[in-house]
């Protein structure tokens, strides 16, 4: 591995050697990284920078927006709208799509993001992040429509996240494995720290919001009961639970050392498939997990195969170490 090479050089070499990254996509990824760098600096300032607390508004999902949700959303839009690489953007914090204004050239890519993941962690100095996913605009019609975004996750051409924790680390896939880049604050650039990230197939670690237990479906209860039974139970080993309450951080831990993450459907809102959003949370994370040798399903089917019908569509999520996700998926299918 060419450790410590810059993100720019990594992308240039990927473009040169494998032709995996066309020039416009490379520009797009550089711009997203630059926006994440700006968000990271805002996050770092905390109370010193007027970035904490709520903004007093609500997003389309009925969540109270934090100031940083809005700052991160605006930062990503401002960074990306002028470069000529994008046709439109979609975000957790915007009801409809954001079409690149006429004063800028229109590109062929579509960018989706969760500008700030883990909003409940902002005010307590815990890890948060930005998640993004890139699609190509379908050809054959002028302009751009919301339905252009309704492509299954298998169609993603790039996906990743940036975690703002003790370090700021950008994690990326363009379909050729997963690479990690940590922000060097003195140089001001992201440097490669890990390539070909691989998730162990087995694990003793699980992540789920246990306070929702009474609302879960039987297969999820069965799985968690079994792991909680530890050495004395059917799994014959003790498990540990970890829950950061920011998907970015929980997925980052799994990419670093394995584990399983679940945000399942629950009885409180039977008509909602789950809490997490398919297009800008589940799809990019599922592709990263698969690229690292893991697995991601909604309990029954592969997340990346789901064809979205709405921008803010939700989905049940089970992802991480392969053997564990396979088991949980089997429990669901057995119960059907
Ligand atoms: P967001 O902050 O972008 O709305 O996403 C929050 C999500 C996800 O990051 C996390 O896994 C989950 O919400 C935690 O939710 P609860 O603490 O409500 O279970
Ligand atoms: Mn939110
Ligand atoms: Mn989120
Ligand atoms: Mn968010």
UniProtKB/TrEMBL annotation:
Substrate binds at residues 117-120, 209, 275. Its EC number is 3.1.3.11. It comes from the Bacteria. Mg(2+) 1 binds at residues 92, 114, 116. Residues 199-332 form the Fructose-1-6-bisphosphatase class 1 C-terminal domain. Its main location: cytoplasm. Binds 2 magnesium ions per subunit. It is found in: Cytoplasm. Pfam families: FBPase, FBPase_C. Mg(2+) 2 binds at residues 114, 117, 281. Its cofactor is Mg(2+). GO terms for molecular function: fructose 1,6-bisphosphate 1-phosphatase activity; magnesium ion binding. CDD domains: FBPase. GO terms for cellular component: cytosol. Pathway: Carbohydrate biosynthesis. It catalyses: beta-D-fructose 1,6-bisphosphate + H2O = beta-D-fructose 6-phosphate + phosphate. Residues 6-195 form the Fructose-1-6-bisphosphatase class I N-terminal domain. It is an enzyme of class 3 (hydrolase). NCBIfam families: PRK09293.1-1, PRK09293.1-3, PRK09293.1-4. Homotetramer. PANTHER family: FRUCTOSE-1,6-BISPHOSPHATASE-RELATED, SEDOHEPTULOSE-1,7-BISPHOSPHATASE, CHLOROPLASTIC. This is Fructose-1,6-bisphosphatase class 1. It comes from Comamonas suwonensis. The gene is fbp.
